[in-house]
From TrEMBL:
This is SDR family NAD(P)-dependent oxidoreductase. Keywords: Oxidoreductase. It comes from the Bacteria. PANTHER family: DEHYDROGENASES, SHORT CHAIN, SCP2 DOMAIN-CONTAINING PROTEIN. SUPFAM superfamilies: NAD(P)-binding Rossmann-fold domains. Belongs to the short-chain dehydrogenases/reductases (SDR) family. Residues 7-204 form the Ketoreductase domain. It comes from Zhongshania guokunii.
Length: 287
């Protein structure tokens, strides 16, 4: 039986790469899919429409949305497309993202604004109306795309990392605010082959990091297979699936006759305050 029968999913940045893989995977499992992407191919045809046509050709249901989600009106249009075409909005996958990689001192204001506009503001513009609809209509599932660049760091990606770290915080708040309304929220840090990373990979790496592998993790997240789980951040690739989370060392406390929270006391107790190893070590290619 299809895992997503009668469900409606909205996916941003779904004209190619990971988003396209998600759209086709969810459609194959019975979901009607809103494919958002403003990109065009060399002939001027919208990528979103190409993905929609491919889904329909295999018997699935899909509708295209080519709005710019960096604007409030564009973000809100995705919910309207879903309601007009299919009458519901049960799943939202915030996948859209762009890169403008430069080392910190070479970043321009335009580099900062464009990346934050799509990767972080775009998540706000799309999610707010969908979240409101889900709250009034029995809940749903939201998957927000972060990155190891934001959770761990990566040279030359300060703007991208800032946006993706913001996604992690946004998801944590949405988890809290959505709990009573039956809205489950996930954070995803994917590693997959893309137009940017493919030239750097050999054939074996490309296979291991095929976007289809990450799509299976997303299918788990948004289906009943994940039960009532919410608030988790998963790293997903063809090589591994693992939860990423913040951890705390034992530390020292400010109570008791032997406590010392002065600078000297902190130095003396550093073994208890600092972790022995980095909290996250990710060896797979990051998105």
């Amino acid at each position: 039986m299809a895992l997503l029968k009668n469900k409606v999913a909205i996916i941003t940045g779904a004209g190619r790469g990971l988003g396209e893989a998600y759209a086709k995977c969810l459609a194959a499992q019975g979901a009607a899919v809103v494919v958002n992407d403003l990109g065009k191919d060399e002939s001027g045809e919208y990528l979103a429409e190409q993905v929609v046509n491919a889904i329909i050709a295999t018997g699935g249901k899909a509708a295209a949305n080519t709005a710019d989600i960096a604007t409030m009106s564009g973000g809100a249009s995705l919910l309207q497309t879903a309601l007009d075409a299919f009458g519901s909005a049960d799943i939202l996958i915030n996948n859209a993202g762009i890169l403008r990689d430069k080392s910190f001192l070479k970043l321009t204001e335009a580099d900062w604004d464009s990346v934050l506009g799509v990767n972080l503001k775009g998540m706000f513009t799309v999610t707010q109306p969908v979240f409101a609809w889900m709250k009034e209509n029995g809940g749903g599932v939201i998957v927000n795309t972060s990155s190891t660049s934001g959770l761990v760091g990566n040279f030359g990606q300060l703007n991208y990392a800032a946006a993706k770290a913001g996604v992690f915080g946004m998801s944590n708040v949405l988890t809290i605010e959505g709990a009573k309304a039956g809205i489950r929220v996930w954070t995803l840090a994917p590693a997959a082959t893309s137009a940017l990373t493919a030239p750097l990979m050999n054939d074996e790496q490309k296979q291991l990091l095929d976007p289809a592998h990450v799509a299976e993790a997303v299918l788990y997240m948004v289906s009943e297979l994940s039960g009532n789980k919410t608030g988790h951040c998963l790293f997903a690739s063809g090589q591994s699936i693992r939860e990423l989370k913040l951890v705390s060392a034992e530390g020292i406390r400010g109570r008791g006759e032997n406590s010392d929270l002065t600078a000297e006391g902190i130095a003396a107790a550093s073994d208890a305050i600092f972790l022995d190893a980095p909290t996250m070590v990710i060896n797979d290619f990051a998105k």
